[in-house]
Structure formats: C-alpha cells, structure tokens
Amino acid sequence: MAPTDLSCLQLPRACHEALAKQRSARIDSHTIPVATTWWNTELAAVGLPGAPMASSDVTQLSRGDLFADVAKLDTDSDEELLRFLWRVLAWGSGMKLRLNRKRMRAVADSPSSAVAALHQALQAAREDPARAYEALHPRDCNAIAYLGPAFSTKVLYFAGRGAFDHPCAILDSQVAATLRTICKWESLGDNAWPASTYVRYCTLLDRWAREEGRRFGRRIGIDEIERWLFRP
Hints:
Elements: H1 13-19, H2 23-28, E1 31-33, H3 36-46, E2 60-62, H4 63-71, H5 78-93, H6 100-109, H7 111-125, H8 129-136, H9 149-158, H10 173-181, H11 195-216, H12 222-230
C-alpha cells in the first residue's frame, strides 16, 4: 500500500469539541488506577533498582505525577531512571499487568544496557523524535525486550514534562486504530512502526496542534490531540 498523504488529513470535528475543554483536566489530571502492591512486590523479588515504584498508599498515577517525576529526575542515576520506567509502565498498564514481569526480567538480564538505552532516549526526546525512538528500537528491534512502541513512546512523551513544544507523543494500537479508521491514515499499520512512521505521526499531530491553536487562540499541545485519538 502506498503511504497515505498526511498533508490531506484533517482533524475530525469531534476532536475540535474535545479541545475546547481545559488542558489541565484532560492532560495533567488524566489519572489511571495502578497496582502498587504488585509492582513493589515484583520489583523486590527481582532485586531491581527503582523500588518501591510508589508508597503503598498510592493507588493511582496521573500524567501530572509523571511530569513532576521528570522535573526532578537525575538522568545520571540508574535508580531514578528505572523508577521512572516502572512508574510509566504502571500508568500505562493500569490493572493489566500481563507483560510487565517479562519487562522486569529483561531489565534484570542486562541492567546496564537498559539504563543506557533509557538515558539516550530521554536525552534525545526533547529535540529529535527519530533518534529518541531509535534509542529504544535500534534496527526495528526492542532495546528492552517486551518494551514495544506502545510503552516506549510513553517514555519519550513523559520526558517532555508536559511542555507544549515537546515533539514526542504516545503512539499505541488504540491511537493507531483511530488514525486509520476515523482520520483515514490508511497505510498506518497496527504496531512495530519504523522510526520514519513515528516521525510522520508526531509531525502530523504538530500540524494539527498548530491549526487548532489558531482556531482557539491558545497553544495546543500535541498530547491534547493524542488524548482524543486514544479515546475519541
């Protein structure tokens, strides 16, 4: 299938309506229940740095919580980098935990290479989506086993601390389904996207965000559009 001409794609009207709502409510306060006890127990069992994922009384995490994590993150600390990863995975997984034990084992098998990939990705994420994506998907393989695009792009996204000009957005199967069926990006596959596709995605969202910003007379973050694409 020939690549879809993304310059022709228009943002659906339903997304215009969603963007009229307060950014803080849709983004910063987007909260997910998390299985804190499970995470802390499993991390302790494997003996990985970054435990506990959260204190035992924490039952949910928001995007705002993860933005705050990055604001104070010491990227030279293996422990802090891995705690950030566990918290991103906990937020992204919610109560569906099926692959996270395998992800932990993959990190435990080669912690230095996992930390190096995370460090490189976080450094690149604020400027270069292609280089950031490739840090976690070198040669279209996962740098950390079982950490595919759906979760690694969450890492890249949260690296931006919620900044309007952050160039990386979350891309998962739900977002892709909306892009294919509602927005008519017909050539977009289900998953395992190459870096070039991820860059096209982020560029498309940036165009839509700039267009909507002119419509509303305020800055629109690409994550505000991603939020609608995830659950239109």
